[in-house]
Design brief:
404 residues; alpha/beta; 4-stranded mixed sheet; 36% helix; 19% strand; binds pyridoxal-5'-phosphate
Length: 404
């Protein structure tokens, strides 16, 4: 079947939630994908910051396959060692021995779990950020700033106040002793890859402690190595690719941390981690999930963590820095600046041509996207090498100029 045939079948049967698909893919391996017509692409988007280890990673594939052949699903009336082990490893990332984990199937569900936990503080007010994205369920939408996503579905749950991202004074003015939680991203990926300014997350920590509110950090996109650290919010430098060697000791620690995208390398799995007093908020019967944390999903998560231990984060920091510098080094008149951390970069353009440039890149065999009209997002697999990415650097000036 050709892509044209498959695209018309798609449109005849799928709800029109995503528009017409730009391509129909058939196969992936490492940093490459092949469409149904056999054309090869270099993936610089990783299925929206998901395929951190690239496509068809042998370790993840073997772990999922072996677990499915041994024990696929038992429900949360029961447990499996895979699940317990993944929870232990995720909890350990926080450095808090009291940390506790709730597994989900997606990022929005991880945030939904966190949202419900905030209600158990006895407070209902949430302070969220302008420019935020937290997912598409009603709860996650309630704390997502984008009016286009929210308005058709109002009224949304909750008592939510939005403040400008990065503005400490505005946050201080909005948070009082009635606030249950402040929800924040270390880098706002969907808003065009906007990192929190230096010191902002530490200020969020300080202000929430002062008022007895929870600090809820959405690491769905930024976590697990995407920004060069396991938890991007513990990394206090904003310089792309630079590393704070002491981040794990010095960075603030959220009370609620949500993860998903990179956790399963494409297998659906998410997690809500609670630290400190928040770890004991949830009582039996107050939340649940049929699939969340099933043995296969947990095996995928464990295989990803195994692979990340093998120097992947160091490589991601180094190649991410190189990629940012290589784009800057083009000195292209249409490029204003490059921002982000690790392997999550935003190329800010001087004109609103990002969608057209992303389409042209696809035609040229490079997968990127345009989270904003003037921003290109680069989120290649963490295992990408300079050699993998150099052809994109070579092609970018031509892609930009032909759309100005
Ligand atoms: C993608 C994303 C979500 C939603 O995750 P889904 O798995 O699509 O539900 C939530 N928060 C952030 C920061 C994200 O990037």
């Amino acid at each position: 079947m050709t892509q044209a045939d498959l695209t018309s079948r798609y449109s005849a049967v799928m709800m029109n939630a995503f528009g017409a698909p730009k391509r129909v893919f058939e196969r992936g391996e490492g940093v490459h994908l092949w469409d149904a017509d056999g054309k090869q692409y270099t993936d610089l988007l990783s299925g929206l910051a998901v395929n951190a280890l690239g496509h068809a990673h042998p370790g993840v594939t073997a772990a999922i396959t072996a677990q499915l052949g041994q024990l696929g699903h038992v429900s949360n009336f029961y447990a499996s060692e895979q699940q317990i082990r993944l929870a232990e490893r995720l909890a350990a990332l926080t450095g808090d021995v009291g940390a506790r984990v709730f597994f989900t199937n997606s990022g929005t569900e991880a945030n939904e779990a966190a949202f419900k936990l905030t209600r158990l503080t006895g407070r209902t007010r949430i302070v969220a950020m302008e420019g935020s994205f937290h997912g598409r369920t009603m709860g996650a939408l309630a704390i997502t700033a984008n009016a286009k996503y929210r308005e058709p579905f109002e009224p949304l749950p909750g008592d939510v106040t939005f403040v400008p991202y990065g503005d400490v004074d505005a946050l201080r003015a909005a948070v009082d002793d009635t606030v249950a939680a402040v929800v924040v991203e270390a880098v706002q990926g969907e808003n065009g890859v906007v990192p929190a300014p230096d010191g902002y997350l530490a200020a969020v920590r300080e202000i929430t402690i002062e008022h007895g509110a929870l600090m809820w950090v959405d690491e769905v996109q930024t976590g697990l190595g995407r920004c060069g650290e396991y938890l991007a919010h513990r990394w206090s430098l904003s310089v792309a690719g630079a590393r704070n060697e002491h981040s794990d000791d010095e960075g603030p620690l959220g009370d609620l941390i949500t993860l998903a995208k990179g956790l399963g390398n494409g297998f659906p799995v998410g997690a809500c981690i609670a630290t400190g007093a928040a770890a004991s908020l949830l009582q039996p019967g107050q939340h649940g999930t049929t699939f969340g944390g099933n043995p296969v999903a947990a095996a995928a998560g464990n295989a990803v963590l195994d692979a990340l231990e093998g120097g992947v984060l160091d490589a991601a920091r180094e190649v991410g820095q190189w990629l940012a510098d290589a784009v800057r080094g083009l000195n292209h008149p249409l490029i204003s600046h490059v921002r982000g951390r690790g392997m999550l970069l935003g190329v800010v353009l001087r004109e609103e041509i990002a969608a057209k440039v992303a389409d042209a890149a696809l035609d040229a065999g490079f997968i990127i996207n345009a989270p904003r009209p003037d921003v290109l997002r680069l989120a290649p697999p963490l295992i990408s090498t300079r050699e993998d990415l150099q052809p994109f650097i070579d092609a970018l000036p031509g892609l930009l100029t032909s759309h100005a």
